[in-house]
Design a protein that fits this description.
By secondary structure, this protein is mainly beta. It has a seven-stranded antiparallel beta sheet, with no helix packed on it.
Length: about 70
């Protein structure tokens, strides 16, 4: 989650993710893949995105998240 809690992601063992944005639960859901420090997302509507793990943080879409 971000420091402010605006963006939260749950990455599950079955390679699915569920994202909450601005209090809107299930704002984005889909699959993800991790390759080294990079995580790629494909949401259920076909939108693609990516993020990068740096130390204990996930950088994604202009946000910085830490484990909650």
């Amino acid at each position: 989650m971000t420091r402010t809690g605006f963006l939260r992601q749950e990455l599950t063992a079955d390679v699915r993710y569920d994202e909450t944005r601005g209090g809107r639960t299930h704002a984005h859901q889909g699959r993800f893949w991790v390759d080294g420090d990079r995580v790629d997302y494909l949401d259920d509507l076909g939108f693609r995105a990516y993020g990068e793990f740096k130390d204990d943080e996930l950088h994604h879409a202009g946000y910085v998240m830490k484990r909650g």
